[in-house]
């Protein structure tokens, strides 16, 4: 799929203030610093569309970007930010859960996983929660430029093993690098396919 245009629309904390749910929408979620905002920039080929930072906790709001004037990409704040206070974490949970549970045009959520790490409890629990709530998701292993392909295969296999303890089958799985743009075409084609259905 070709990205002809990508425009920032609105940031907010309230799902009810999101744009009218009249176009397909795809959200990016995962731990703070996993590379959600960078992936949005990589997909849209716009370096500064979503704000990124070396420090976790950069994205704090629900950010809507309109792509090709007919679908949305959504950048969300990360979870598992160690420095967040308990009340901040609770606030995060409330508004993100509300967004994921109520957003009627949300087609799929991409759960980003740091490809360098062994399976993380917080990510497994989040995906399990999506399963319980019936929120469709796909996994995206990020930052694959930072490890060898054999280490990547090993970490992906470890995730698969953990997932299959709970799930009957694996969700769609992607691997990406926002540095090299690896995985861009596959992910965009997947979205394209879903847009057509
Ligand atoms: P929060 O908004 O804080 O939740 O973080 P985020 O998930 O949006 O992460 P962000 O895109 O801001 O990236 C965090 C850091 O990781 C930045 O320093 C990025 O440059 C770096 N980064 C993101 N993706 C990649 C990647 O594919 N490869 C490499 N080498 N670095 C990456
Ligand atoms: Mg971010």
UniProtKB/TrEMBL annotation:
<keyword id="KW-0342">GTP-binding</keyword>
<comment type="function">
    <text>Necessary for normal cell division and for the maintenance of normal septation.</text>
</comment>
<comment type="similarity">
    <text>Belongs to the TRAFAC class TrmE-Era-EngA-EngB-Septin-like GTPase superfamily. EngB GTPase family.</text>
</comment>
<dbReference type="InterPro" id="IPR030393">
    <property type="entry name" value="G_ENGB_dom"/>
</dbReference>
<keyword id="KW-0131">Cell cycle</keyword>
<dbReference type="InterPro" id="IPR006073">
    <property type="entry name" value="GTP-bd"/>
</dbReference>
<dbReference type="InterPro" id="IPR019987">
    <property type="entry name" value="GTP-bd_ribosome_bio_YsxC"/>
</dbReference>
<keyword id="KW-0132">Cell division</keyword>
<keyword id="KW-0717">Septation</keyword>
<keyword id="KW-0547">Nucleotide-binding</keyword>
<dbReference type="InterPro" id="IPR027417">
    <property type="entry name" value="P-loop_NTPase"/>
</dbReference>
<feature type="domain" description="EngB-type G">
    <location>
        <begin position="22"/>
        <end position="197"/>
    </location>
</feature>
<protein>
    <recommendedName>
        <fullName>Probable GTP-binding protein EngB</fullName>
    </recommendedName>
</protein>
<keyword id="KW-0460">Magnesium</keyword>
<keyword id="KW-0479">Metal-binding</keyword>
<dbReference type="Pfam" id="PF01926">
    <property type="entry name" value="MMR_HSR1"/>
</dbReference>
């Amino acid at each position: 799929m070709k990205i002809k245009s990508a425009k920032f629309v609105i940031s907010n904390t309230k799902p009810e203030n999101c744009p009218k749910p009249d176009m397909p929408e795809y959200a990016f979620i995962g731990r703070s610093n996993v590379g959600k905002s960078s992936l949005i920039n990589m997909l849209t080929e716009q370096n500064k569309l979503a704000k990124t930072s070396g420090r976790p906790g950069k994205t704090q709001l629900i950010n809507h970007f309109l792509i090709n004037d007919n679908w949305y990409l959504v950048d969300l704040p990360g979870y598992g930010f160690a420095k967040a206070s308990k009340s901040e974490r609770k606030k995060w949970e409330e508004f993100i859960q509300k967004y994921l549970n109520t957003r009627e045009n949300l087609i799929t959520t991409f759960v980003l996983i740091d490809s360098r790490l062994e399976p993380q409890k917080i990510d497994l629990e989040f995906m399990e929660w999506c399963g319980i709530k019936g929120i469709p998701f796909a996994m995206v292993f990020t930052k694959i430029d930072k490890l060898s392909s054999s280490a990547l295969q090993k970490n992906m296999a470890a995730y698969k093993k953990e997932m299959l303890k709970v799930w009957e089958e694996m969700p769609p799985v992607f691997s990406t690098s926002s540095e090299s743009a690896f995985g861009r075409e596959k992910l965009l084609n997947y979205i394209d396919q879903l847009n057509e259905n």
